[in-house]
Amino acid sequence: MSGGQRPAKKILRKTRESLEASGLLEHCGAGRREENLRVMTYNVRYFGHPTRGITSTESALRGIAAAIGKLNPRPDIIALQEVESHSLRADAGRKREAPQIERLVQRLNAQQAETGPSVRYSHLYFPSHTYSLTPRAALYTTGLAILVSDRIELTETQPAIDITHRRLKLTKRWKQTRICAHVSLTHKSSGERLDVYNTHLSLPQFLTWRSVTFTKQMGSGANQLYELFALLDYIEESKCSDNVLLMGDFNSLPGSLVYDYVHEHTNLADPLRDHLGLDTPDYRKLPSAGFMNFKMRLDYLFASRHLTWSEFDSSVAFGAESPFLGLSDHAPIIGRLDVPSLVSTQLVAA
After folding, report:
1. In the chain, which end has fewer C-beta atoms inside a 10 angstrom radius, N or C?
2. C-alpha of 197 from chain center
3. How far apart are CA 236 and CA 243, in angstroms?
């Protein structure tokens, strides 16, 4: 028996040497990498440090770019919330430069990957709201951004829709606009389509007659439900495939009306929660954001239920040790989507 093993080992060694010489092993490894897409959602808080003031935006931007650069593999799809364009806050302490998102992408594309091949990103910015001092000067601005790697083709995009629920006409001009951004993507290697939605819901509107009984927790405000229904309708009207990702800051706790409606009454699952096997009380103990002494789970990556996910190893609780610690008042969610789980059905947007 041992005599039979030696020739077999010799044959295997020679076979491997031949494959290495031909480059086929490297090609097979690349094929395995193509079988998943890394997806990330992150509220960057305008790239401003929680305690260092508005002039800290550049250092936080550099830190976030460096943290993303340390991820292996790099994310293929990145949804960002609370991104500025030009304003007194965004440009404080420096001459007027490129907008925040352009500076971030420039830094990401200039980085050389330490542990893998370099990745180049393209991006789309979706402006949401401008607080103006004068017609030419903004105190600050708000917006969303979506970045995609060079493994992804941007197939279709539409202007973001306004989902804001404005209860009172007298105050609607001061109400911060909330939007939902949408891009339709194609994974170049497989040809499969994917619809990505990025959003940031309002805080619950506490000053209503329902305040005492209805708005008891983050995610149970009537205004938040109106915004959720608006964005869910938009998804049904605009999606080009059955492969849907809905990501962002929902300002809603697990077990709230907003969260439970998505989780129980739509075709969208919460793959992070499912991957960790957490019930509602335990999921609430995994915060994604912090303010003063409060820590809460407010950020989510929802996905079509048929999609499967390999890992969420880089997703940690807010305040836990990670490359993103101290860079925002939120922590990112980072997961790996299995490309073979994408379905080929393509829809015609309404």
Report:
1. N
2. 9
3. 12
94 has pLDDT over 60: no
Domain 36-341 has CATH 3.60.10.10: yes
CA 299, CA 259: separation in Å to the nearest integer?
10
Task: Give the residue with greater pLDDT, 124 vs 22.
Answer: 124
The H or E element that residue 70 is part of is helix 57-70
Give the integer Cα–Cα distance in Å for 219 and 212: 14
> For 278, phi and psi rounded to 5 degrees?
-100, 140
CA 318 to chain centre: 15
User: In terms of Cα–Cα distance, which of 241, 147, 244, 189 is closest to 35?
Assistant: 189
Distance of CA 282 to the CA centre of its chain: 22
CB count, 10 Å around CB of 190?
14
| Least confident interval from 5-14, 80-89, 295-304 | 5-14
pLDDT at position 138? 46
The tokens describing 42, both together, are 């992150």
- How far apart (Å, rounded) are the C-alpha atoms in residues 111 and 66? 8
How many angstroms separate the CA atoms of 28 and 30, rounded?
Answer: 5
Measured on CA atoms in the order 106, 110, 115, 116, is the torsion positive or negative? Answer: positive
CB 324 within 8 A of CB 45: no
User: Of 260, 189, 206, 242, which is closest to residue 349 (Cα–Cα)?
Assistant: 242
Closest by Cα among 242, 301, 296 to 269 = 301
Give the model's confidence band at 190: pLDDT under 50 very low, under 70 low, under 90 confident, else very high: very high
Confidence of residue 27 (pLDDT cuts 50, 70, 90): very low
Encoded amino acid at 229, one letter: F
- Residue 250, Cα to own-chain centre: how many angstroms? 12
pLDDT digits (tens, 9 = 90+) for 225-235: 999 999 999 99
* Cα Dmax for the chain: 90
CA distance 133 to 174: 13
Q: Is the pLDDT of residue 207 over 70?
A: no
141 to each of 15, 54, 83, how far by Cα in Å? 60, 13, 8
Beta bridge partners of 338: 36
